Queue: 4 jobs
Job 1
Amino acid sequence: MVKKEKEDVGTDAEEKNHLAALCALVMQDPEKNGKLMKQILEKTNEEKPILLRKLALISGGAVLKDIIPGYFIRELTQIEKETIVTKEVKQLRDYEQSLLKYYKTFLKIAEQGLKDSSFAFICAKSLCDLLISARHFNFHANIVAVVVPLLDSSSNQISTLVYSSLVELIKEDFTAESSLLIVRSITDLVKRRGYRTRENILDIFLELNLNQVLNAPEPLEKQVKKSSEKKVTKRSEEKNIEKQLEEAETAISQRDMKKRQSEILKYVFVTYFRIIKKAQESILLPSVLHGFSRFAHLISIEVVQDLLQVLKTFIASDSTKSIENKLEATLTAFEVAKHQETLNVDLKEFYNHFYSLLNDIHFLPSDPKSQRRETLILRTLSKLFLEPKKLPIERVAGFIKRLSILTLGTNSELTIGILLFIHRMFK
């Protein structure tokens, strides 16, 4: 038995050394030694020891991350394959196609490994690394499609890893291509699972930068026309042509960005409206309300009245709805109305509902939600009374009386907050 264990240890050490040597050779000369990737990937087979499998996957991912080119490898057409080319071109093509084959194999191994609990985290980590570092490369959309469902993984470790990786990718996405893939996949995921997922999944939407939706670039034709009208000398003609081309490329890039961001916004609002209308009991609702507030300035005027009506109905609904969500909905309604100056929105009913909520809050026992509820009360008071420039004196007086009564039964922190609010109202 002891002799067998020693043999196993020796074999493991040899396997590890062999793996290290293979990785070094591939990284030293990828075009010449790229075929050795096959041996590296073979060490991830299920019959291998789990530690070796993990090392092989981590090492293989690191090697691929290092050797993949900074461009997308286009698939050759049948005509291109049959065309006679120089030796150098053929070598490059063969290397690129071989690299794609091994890269695809690696992704399949990682995807399959997600089903093995002892192997899943390493696989998720490898996929997330390539998701960020190889966003320009082939199969990026495939990686997004595999990684996004892991947001709802039963493993907190994997879910947290994927969430942080997707947020990092979105923040570094200056073309909105990856963001669009992520949003589309998340929209499909939450719908497919009946809006019963981890509560923070839709918080990723809050990281989106949709500044180009409103800041549309000047039409490309107009820009080119302006440039052509400038007087140019023979000496500066070449520089002006280059400048024109750069401006045209910039205009096209901005136009594509605006198109993608508009599509992203469509998916975001479709998801939000589905939940606020059909799945109000979903754990995702607070995130939806935050999202409406975050993107209130981008909501189309055609749907504002519909949204406000839905929020009004939700707040006025029976007491089974969460008080915290009703307060969030009230904040959302006022944030949306603030960005719709062209509409004459009457928010009186929201004030009335909030007045009634204060009475309900008075009788609520202290529980784990108390801190969030108290924060929401103070935020709502500030939004409803300190931001508007003019309010009926009767409404202000009525709320001050109700708040004064409320302080008789609240804890010291909330009581101080309410008294400070009343003090500011009298200033």
Job 2
Amino acid sequence: MFPPISIDSGENQSKCGAADEGKTTRRSSAYVERMQQQKLIMGLSSGTFSLLPSITRALEKLYRVIDFEMQSIGAQKITMPCLAPQHLWNTSGRWEKMGSELFTFQDRNKAFHCLAPTHEEAVTSIVASESPISYRRLPIRLYQIGRKFRDEARPKHGLLRCREFEMKDLYTFDPDPEAAEGSFQDVCSAYSRIFSKLVLPFVEVDASTGLMGGKKSREFHLISSIGEDTLFVCDKCGCGVNQELLSEQNENRRNCTETGCTGSMKQHSGIEVAHAFILGTTYTVPFKAMYVDNQRRKHHLQMGCFGIGITRLLSASVEVLSTGGHIRWPRILAPHQLCIIPQKEGFRSDVTKELADLLYDRLNALPNLRGEVVIDDRLHLSIGQRLQLDTASGFPYVVALGKQSLSEVPVYEFHDVYNSTKQFYSVDQLVDILQSVETVVV
């Protein structure tokens, strides 16, 4: 329903190439244009986008990856309303602090609400409604995946800075600071596993707590020339810090401060894709969220909050992985893993179409490829034209049915797109290769 409009060649392709360390000549407008040309997103208004079928399928796969890691650390999934009443935000004091970025409105009963950009108030009120909680029920780890809203003054870079976006937000409640630190490390380790599974070049940096408040903050970034954060990362041990935090501390860090490390801090631009906070009692005190210890004494819970900008992560991944004019996904998130290209209408195209259908059935029967194989049936285009289109749109693998597929023992042209290799294989050889491809079931 939504095929790509066109694939440019030549000078336009260089505008959206992969980001290297330091400055590049890439222009941000080409990135947004490429996403729209490939029918991944469609702008509706400034800072709002419709997510079309291909990127929606990739998004569903990312949900599965995140769900797995969240549940592996004992987090339970919930859903909270996008509408938040003013009285909750007055309780935390953030109704006024958030300023013009907070979408607010008044309902027919003259009550004020906001479209939540985050849910610390809502989740703490849930826990407070059960207070005091027995220490035996701790830790509590609750997360959701849903829409968030922010009235950005200058939306830009497509899904990287917009007014409506998808986020995974996790909230932890522990009995004491030591346990809260343990939850913090558990979640940060889970985040690292997520980014490693996606094979993304990420860095972790110490960061400012900002309007969120609390005691400790860590950010996860993808290095990119269009990133709006300035980072300093050690060239030996990899530890890093956000320039914003250095400015708050009135510090100019040239050398690594990790014990025993003699590395230098190198400057990079980064796209923030995840954030972790230790909040302490910033929210649990005003909301009276408490627990009872084994001596029946009441204490305020220690809280943490952790977010992954899901639509931002997906688009940032495409930004840093893509090369030239070709979209590249984290391989396991590609909307479909393999595309089959039969012959163009004309010479024995009925035979190659039948062969394509048989190959589709054989590959789609593999457990890991069920639902991951498509046939490019634009038979008015040549194999070469469709190969260019399909390679540029981000399929990790393409199988073309050229003249050798018409031989007595059919042989197929197999393209490992992300590794830029081409080989010729029989059906059985293709099955042997593709049955080990890692995929995410949706």
Job 3
Amino acid sequence: MKFDSVLPVIGEFGRYQKRVYILLCLPAISCALHKLAWVFLGAKVDHRCKLPIESVDAVFNELPSGYLFNESFPWDGQREMWSQCLRFDNTTGATISCGGEYVYDKRKYESSTFIDFNLVCEERKMMHSHAQALFMAGILLGSIGFGDLSDRFGRRPVFFLSLVLQVVFGILAGLAPEYFTFVIARMVVGASTSGIFLVGFVIAMEMVGPTKRMVAGVVCQYFFTAGYFITAIFAYFIRDWRMLQIALSLPGLVFLSYYWFFPESIRWLLARGRKEEAVEILRKVAKENKVTIPEEMYEGLCSEESSKAGTNILQVFRYPRLGLRAVNIFFSWYHQLVIYRNRLYFKIHLNVISRFVNSGVYYGLSLNTSNLGGNDYLNFAISGAVEIPAYAFLLFSLNRLGRKAVLCGCMLAGG
């Protein structure tokens, strides 16, 4: 007897499942904080060269007495403003670089990595985009690495390992004295978000019955949206980027308390042949849900189809269709998949493109709300608010219209 056969008996979404589901959805808020915080951690501001006569507390839109902007900085015709990266030499009048010293406009943002690490002008401006790119690379590596580790060593230890890494390296990123330490720490944080969100999602959903999984899968995304709003609130009240980074990391300490009452995955235990432990957890589930499971059902419970040892990610490719789906997921983060196999090629190709485009558009819009003008915090909050009716639409339409119609319709509506 497979584990899915037990779910209708213990309840497809009973009291136990609801409790575990909510507890495991809450860390999604923490993941959202880190994934979206770059809008404020790396906020760009206007800047100009610091003149030799100016002190460290120079003001962006003011020059020392006797100095004029047209005599101190060349005109940038492309941006239609005074140059941000060049100035005139006081003695020769030649155009020279800023020499690594800048004055920033701190009227909107008092502090950011852009300011503290001087991620400006030709020699360092690419480092600003590389910081977030490496964070996303960490998410990709974490998706693969922590997924494999959770299959080898269990969902529970990997989940808590990810939590510890997120807290420790999140705080380290806030204390980083220079750029490279910050980037490496943030990359580890990015990887940890995959371990927390993906592993937690798997554990939460595996206990939900088939008829409830669609609703549970969509509602989980509302917790990520809640993280959207909380990020805006934190950033509004905490204007120092280092304190903001640390503040976004500390909530992870609360989730470490799960260690004392959070069970291992029943499916994983069965897959590893640890039937006694799985049955013990099932008894607790039945007790909390106030149902009785016949003893013959416990005895007839068999291991999930998986080898007890030597499991690795390459075993996915033992099954052609599962292998093709896995490749689809892997490359949806990176580039288009090219598999020439009649109609199957066409379906996979379209699926890869849709995932690639959706991820690019989602994070492209979410991480660039500050470019819209107006109030950055309000723009960011509105960007998160639009997800609320979107998920409500999914709850209403997925089972009624089908996945394909909803996906294609939303792609067309989104342009």
Job 4
Amino acid sequence: MLEVLFQLSQLDEALPNSIVMNFNGAEENVLQASHGFITQHPWAKDIRAFINLEAAGAGGRELVFQTGPENPWLISTYEKSAVYPYGNVFGQEIFQTGIIPSDTDFRIYRDFGKIPGIDIAYISNGYVYHTKWDNPDFIPAGSIQRAGENLFATVKNIAASPYLAHPGDYRHGNMVFFDILGAYMVLYPQRVAMILNVLVLVAVLLGFARKVADKSTEGYHGSLFFKKLLAVTGIIVLSWTVAIIVNALLALFLSVTGHAMSWFTNSYLIGGLYEAPALFSAIAVHHLAKELCFKSESDPWKLESIHFDATMMLWSALLAVLTYHGICSSYVPLTWVIFPLICRDRVVAFLQFAFKEKGQRFFYLYIASLSFPFLITSYLLVGIYQMFVPVMGRVGTEVNPDLVISMVGIISLVIKTNFVSSL
């Protein structure tokens, strides 16, 4: 903050709006300092927007995890200003549910000051957070430089924004926002997301209707299509249920045998401890279901097609629920629906891949259609593990950390493998 203040003082031209730098403590005791400032300080009534800097770790990239309420111009200004953007609306929606045992001054400024803002926090190396090792020695110099470049540009542009005069006039709903590998930030209004989601869901329903009525399309048709679709959907859900049970039992076993949180210092062990057993359990269910329910089916591509349709229906159902409740993180299921849908219903048809002649070309094209959803979801999951694994060390006895991480492992596995299970 001091360096940003110094750089601002060196500008050739004065900014059209003043900037207040509030250095305060008394955060851990119910956020008293920020509350005292925003409710009692004579300058508070003139503040139109704020940037709150937080830390749940030491160094790394600073994450935009809350913005608003509404006032989409704030995140738009950040997107245009930040040299290295890093933010996700998923973090905002998860944090505001209260499941993360933490709070920030953002809530005080928002609720008591009635002003919009941006909440930015370090989340890397959360192991040292609130310990005797929580000191500047663990903060890499590069992360300070990175944060300084992002903050200086963002503060300068917000202070020069014409929206500051009457920010209440620009409360146009929330924004969907997420970055792609820290290189580019995607953002669009929630109302646009609602329209896009509904259009995609309609396209899915029309695709199902076409498969029922048009016998020239691949797979099953008529009433048999619905019977097989429901059967395969049930099998997929059963495979998830078995994987959840296996992981829950494994988590409890590790806890009672003195091996609780064996993944804490080496989070990559989560893959072997929880994701691998869940994967094997799901594969076993699918293999058993094939032997019992589809042994008479001689055409493997019919099975592949109906598995794809069942997976599409489940993702579409999730997309519909999130859209109905106005959840901005619905962009995740949207990508998992729209890219495979375009590939199967349009690209394959355009390239005239015959249903009976599917082979390597189809396989590579299909995998390519999953690459972008897989990329942004895996990128999001890395951030989730980076945040949640250290948090599990300070949740106390209220929850079983192994159960939480085992369920995160299930979610991670389901997302990453769901569409390839049909192959």
